[in-house]
Amino acid sequence: MSNPVTQKLAIFLMFQGNAEEAMNFYTSLFEDAEVLQVIRARAEDPGWTEGTLQYGIFRIAGQQVVCSNTPPPDSPLREIAPWDEFTFNPAMTMYVQRDSVEDFDALYEALAEGGRVYLPAKEYGFSPRFAWLDDRYGISWRIDLSSEAVPARP
């Protein structure tokens, strides 16, 4: 695990108990991805099961992402916010551009599995290949194929 270099602006994703699963899934999809830091619950953290991921920092496609799990029901932190009301929605989305059709298709298939597709992968007027979907964790993604990846038409 590398030491994280704090970016001045990073994406922060809050999950309802499956942050580590999501982090591992996302880092498996990108060739340059890595987990930078993991903070786990200690035995003395009220309400938490020891070893449970509390915060994680990882990098995908050159972008640092911070993730966390909401506090468990027995945690005193439950009193400071309505944690169960916080959900992801498609108004906030991760945008990623792929440089080959093969990379695009592989990422699309992995993210679409168990998720919800809004715009299926195909050519649109603004892109040679584009897709918009929510993955199995509720994170919205827009995947775009670089126009340089498509040979010019004669």
Automatic annotation (TrEMBL):
InterPro entries: 3_dmu_93_MTrfase, Glyas_Bleomycin-R_OHBP_Dase, PhnB-like. Residues 7-143 form the PhnB-like domain. It comes from the Bacteria. Pfam families: 3-dmu-9_3-mt. PANTHER family: PHNB-LIKE DOMAIN-CONTAINING PROTEIN, PROTEIN YJDN-RELATED. This is VOC family protein. It comes from Actinomadura fibrosa.
